[in-house]
Amino acid sequence: MDYMRKKAVIFDLDGTLSDSIHSIKYSGDRTMEAFGYGPFSEEQYKYFVGDGAANLVKRALAAAGDAELAHFDEAYALYREIFRENCMYQVRPYEGIPELLAALKAQKVKLAVLSNKPHAETVNVIETLYGKGYFDVIEGQKEGMAIKPSPDGVFRILGRLELTAADILYLGDTATDMKTGKSAGAFTVGALWGFRQREELETGGADAIIEYPLELLRYT
Fold this sequence. Notes:
- This protein has a 6-stranded parallel sheet with strand order 5-4-1-6-7-8, sandwiched between helices. A two-stranded antiparallel sheet has the order 2-3.
- By secondary structure, it is an alpha/beta fold.
- Helix content is 43%, strand content 16%.
- It is globular and about 55 Å long.
- Strand 7 (187-191), helix 9 (198-203) and strand 8 (208-210) form a beta-alpha-beta unit.
């Protein structure tokens, strides 16, 4: 790796900054219940998530036996409504994350979030957990914009911060995150405290893998 000091860290949200599986399961199970499906386990939801709300609903429907996704349009609209009201249900920061963020701020490192969670809910979670203005840039999923693993969101953040990929570190917990960071040309770190396993992060192309948040400081 290039050991020059990094100027910014881009974080994934679910499974990286926030332990949000309870809110996702709660909203998903309430949605599926409306169609006589579910409930699903937290472990199943850890693999439904990561590629946006639409894909989560599709995966849950397929797991329930709706292989043709006949209920998708109705279920997706219902999920968005339920999740909008419950996106903070039992959500908390992972242990060590507040300390990591404080240490990065002390180093004058900029903080950004790139999530496939809908943008309004992404902002809600970040500002509720960490306060308004704590992060320099927040980017959630917006209509008409490509979601991860497209690197487009990384490039939008780089433009707003007036930085290049060499200036940043990208941290996430899924192969989707690793592919996003690598596609943008960033040094990409996998988080083992999140939703997925080491093998997936390695397959996704992680430049480094860490078990605890403060280990990230080795690379900044």
